[in-house]
Amino acid sequence: MIRAADVSVGDELPPLTIRITRADLVRYAGASGDFNPIHWSERFATGVGLPGVIAHGMLTMGLAGRIVTEWAGDPGAVVEYGVRFGRPVPVPDDDEGALVEVTGKVTKVLEDGTFKVNVTAAFEGKSVLGGASARVRLAR
Q1: Which domains does the chain have, with CATH numbers?
Q2: What's the pLDDT tens digit per position in 22-73?
Q3: Residue 39 and residue 119: Cα distance in Å, rounded?
Q4: Helix %, strand %, coil % of the chain (to 5)
Q5: How far apart are CA 87 and CA 55, in angstroms?
Q6: How far apart are CA 93 and CA 127, in angstroms?
Q7: Average pLDDT, whole number, for the chain?
Q8: Confidence (pTM)
Q9: What is the DSSP string of 89-125?
Q10: How far is residue 17's CA from residue 140's CA, in Å, rounded to a whole number?
């Protein structure tokens, strides 16, 4: 577990690489109840102008948030987390899936002693989450 005294503005979190497969989409749909066909039907997804089946935005958001919880060492340390969905993550129908690369950086110490961490999630070099940030309360 990282301690507040060991953190400085500008610190970079260890990068995280996440692979999202069609099987992950099926599991997430079952857990969330989101069975929108853009997340499982290639024909439907391309028919509405998407590049193919896409990952659920909330799944991508949740997986990207792992960079902060793993760094903090305690999911309960994250007191706020938000993103804007910028670009879809197409998930091919193969064993490889889609590779999302996540980075994070401490950008501010707030008045209440929490830390602001900006999170970047990219697929094929393009950002998929906009304005992603977390507020983290670390042990003293």
Answers
A1: 4-20+56-136 (3.10.129.10)
A2: 999 999 999 999 999 999 999 999 999 999 999 999 999 999 999 999 999 9
A3: 24
A4: 30, 35, 35
A5: 10
A6: 22
A7: 97
A8: 0.94
A9: -B--SSSS-EEEEEEEEEEEE-TTS-EEEEEEEEETT
A10: 29
